[in-house]
Design brief:
Largest interface: A-B, 20 and 20 residues
Strand content of chain A: 5-15%
Shape of chain A: globular
Oligomer: homodimer
Number of helices of chain A: 14
Strand order of the largest sheet of chain A: 1-2-10-7-8-9
Chain lengths: 333, 333
């Protein structure tokens, strides 16, 4: 018997837009004539780095939390995340007035832990490693009755992330192409659903050191990588099942970029656009600047996915972008 | 006989808004709930770091250049500046299709020189020091017939800078107070003219290491400092004659901040608002966060003046903000 996946529809994305509107920002769209000239197209940057909690993740988390039935919601929500989803879920739970538990591995950077704690979630420490994180989360869920909200392989989360594309298309009519990064695939799958329904082409951008989406398109089946190695820490996650199903239908391809290109793109955006973006958000910009994704004459919507990074780590990050600089961080298993 | 100064009027500011509109950005206004909570007021940040050339200076330069009579304009414009005014004047001249000469001291950072050259101005090298710069500029003006455009002590420049306040008040009706940094006084005097006409209170923010405006208010006469020492390199200039005249009428006071407060405020804006601002732009934010400027319950417009800085210098800048870090740069004479 074939397994049946619950996938969101375009109308779920539009319903999500209404549901989350009171709690998230309608983020601005910025342009940059220098970058337009560099690529020969017109670029429209949807600034999810200005989103509540500093990343698009607020959209999916709020949609998931506010979709829960009251008695389910009352028991709270839980997840494991050392990154933006943890902070987003904490924020969403705080807005609904329900408890949240976020399992954070002991080796997570202090500033990420602080982002989660800021919104009042209970931080549950665990040993590093995916299996430890999953075990700790299962224990929390069993002990509390909290609903586990997956960071991306969840129909409500996907529908929520897709609202970024809905807004962008309202703000900039007439786009030809939508470009977004892919990690687990929550953002790209939700956005692709909405954008394709409106007739746009959709392309994903991915770090070469975590190219499971690219490999999946090559082989036609969802590839899971044993290890990843990229500076774009938000994109190391494995492509989700629902995300891959939607991508197959709505995304025309994946453009891969190297870490050096990612860091250079991030720096270019900081210098020319005066906005702070995290490495993951620079991945689509790197794809554009690489010239491997021709956009001459096109109007291109670009989702800048987030702006959370540790400023103390910046010198090392920029140094890593130089040919003589240190190498990428060790692979994450 | 008393000297008569040409001062701009409120209607000059509104005329400037129309004149410059095709060439500059209507910059967005951002908010930040975390900063609102920190100060107990509602803050509205006018993002001139997103302005063309990366700073509000584009407004004044464009207004001055497009105010010139055709035959005057044809001979070009000139200035001495190692900073944002040089780039802004170069851009404005390029838009009008006239030549520009910018005298740049030999010790100016390469990225600033590049900003000027990017817009096609002729960069004229000179030895460091104000007298050398002025001598080189006089030579250029005599040799070319170019009109010298002062960076701030000029009625057309002041009127142009004031358009930032006009836009902000259109974008956010009902402001109580306007806050902007003061260096030479171009921005604050133009903005104060417009804001006071609309009934707002106006306060200037100034680095303690270049507090000529504060001292001028204390003594009732325009004070000129022999030396200055502050990380906010855009605010080291001496208060202009026209600027001081307008400030006396329209600015209620000056709030001084230390370099450590400026760097901390800059970092807070980067981390919480995800935008890149230069140290000078952080000065009003530092004033707000210091608690020395009570804004509880008020709606406050804050001009974030620019976002041009060398990312390679960032680690040193942040290090300078720590108690055990290096000291401020040597005084500028």
């Amino acid at each position: 018997m074939e397994k049946v996946l619950t996938l969101p529809s375009v109308s779920d994305v539009h319903a999500a837009a209404g549901r989350i509107a009171p709690w998230v920002r309608r983020t601005p769209v910025l342009t940059c004539s220098g970058l337009d000239e560099a690529v020969g197209g017109r670029l429209f940057f949807k600034c999810e780095n200005f989103q509540k909690t500093g990343a698009f993740k607020a959209r999916g988390a709020v949609n998931a939390v506010f979709s829960l039935e009251p008695e389910e919601a009352a028991r709270g929500v839980a997840t494991h995340s050392s990154g933006n989803h943890g902070a987003a879920l904490a924020m969403a739970a705080a807005r609904r007035g329900i408890p949240a538990w976020v399992v954070v591995p002991a080796d997570a950077p202090p500033f990420k832990r602080a982002n989660v704690a800021r919104y009042g979630a209970t931080v549950v420490d665990c040993a590093p490693g995916l299996s430890n994180r999953e075990a700790a989360l299962a224990e929390v869920a069993e002990g509390t009755g909290a609903t586990v909200i997956h960071p991306y392989d969840d129909a409500r989360v996907i529908a929520g992330q897709g609202t970024a594309a809905v807004e962008l298309m309202e703000q900039v009519p007439g786009l030809d192409l939508l470009l977004a990064p892919v990690g687990g695939g929550g953002l790209i799958s939700g956005c692709a659903l909405a954008a394709r329904a409106a007739g746009l082409r959709v392309v994903a951008a991915e770090p070469a050191g975590a190219d499971d989406a690219w490999q999946s398109f090559q082989t036609g089946g969802r590839v899971r990588l044993e290890t990843t190695s990229t500076i774009a820490d938000g994109l190391r996650a494995s492509l989700g099942e629902r995300n891959w199903a939607l991508m197959q239908d709505h995304v025309e391809g994946v453009c891969r970029v190297e870490d050096g290109e990612i860091i250079a793109a991030m720096r270019t955006v900081w210098e020319r656009m005066k906005i702070a973006i995290e490495p993951s958000a620079a991945v689509p910009v790197a794809a554009l600047l690489s010239g491997r994704l021709p956009v001459r004459g096109l109007s291109v919507g670009v989702i800048l996915s987030g702006g959370n990074l540790d400023l103390d780590g910046l010198p090392g990050l920029f140094a890593a972008g130089r040919p003589d600089g240190p190498q990428a961080p060790p692979p994450m298993t």
